[in-house]
Design a protein that fits this description.
With 364 residues, the protein is α+β, with helices and mostly antiparallel strands. Helix content is 46%, strand content 16%. The chain contains 14 helices and 10 strands. The strands form 3 sheets. Strands 1-2-3-4 form a 4-stranded antiparallel β-sheet, sandwiched between helices. A 3-stranded antiparallel β-sheet has the order 5-7-6. The radius of gyration is 24 Å and the shape is globular.
Amino acid sequence: MDENNKTELPIVQLQYLHRADPEAFYQVASDPDVVKFFDQFRELSKEQILQTLPIINEHPAYCQYWGIYVDNQALIGFIALKKSHDAFKALEHEKTKLPGYVPDINALAEAIDKPNLTDAREKALSPYTVDIALLKDYRGKGYALAAFKTVAVYCAKAGINELYFEVRPDNTSSLKLMSTVGAELLIPAEIEVWPAIYRLPIKFKPPTTEQVHERLRQLQGTPEVSGYNDWRRMVKDVPELAPHDELMTDLFTAVHAKGVRVEFCIRRPDCHLDRTRYEKVLTVGLANRDDPLSIIWSIAHEYGHACQEFPTENETVLFSQAKYERETDAWNKGEQWLKNKIYYCHNWPSFIHLSHQRLNKYLP
């Protein structure tokens, strides 16, 4: 996104759309220009449109809608973050045009033999796209950009590194937005009613020194201040954690609440909880990892151990069933803590892959 764009934007608030007033939602969803560009509301009766509202955010890992509100709490539009199977298929088709392209024979065979399985996998792997709808009186006045910037911050905290846009050539407002945010045109539109596809990397601007000090002042005297300082210590060696200050503050605060002292080691790549009858010490390894953000999962796993009772003798025996079950329980407890966090919502397969990989090491 172009950080040099200093135009002052209007103030908007985003709230999950399923909580919106039904009549206000219908006014936006039935707007002729919105219907023109949003297939999901086309040719639906008022009753059918209103029936979509309570379930519109039912699967947040695939699709989330936020209502866009102004100061008087009037709903002026909505913005959606959703996986697009159409974009996935268009991007995959572009790959076939590259020199030296070799098709995946196994994937082709699966598509023939098990089309439903292929379809489900493709939808899960589809990229996130952004759709924005505004009432006519609020278009071209910066409201869409203001809403998008808020969602871009959400994406950074959710670990979504790039966004895509499907824009029809006759959607002049969206084309202007693409220019403003600096989105890259990947696939031009072949016909007027078929969208072009744009891509935009998500760049997170770390907090300034003044913002960090202000946050410390806000947390002073609370249990969270130690967790926030732990995040500050980590981000020096793992800059990828910069967008995740809230998540890491909460996680370390939960660790401290279990009576655990936290230390850091730049030479080790793993995390480990040492415990005696008298104290618990979590050593967080800051050495390079293939996936730097997997350190979140590792700390959550050690939090799971901190929730457990002192291990029995059998639970300390390597390759024993008791040891394996204790490790499994720690991963489960860590996952339970993570489940309401947006980063887990959008990256849970990464957690599962790492937990299974680590658990396999405890099998003989």
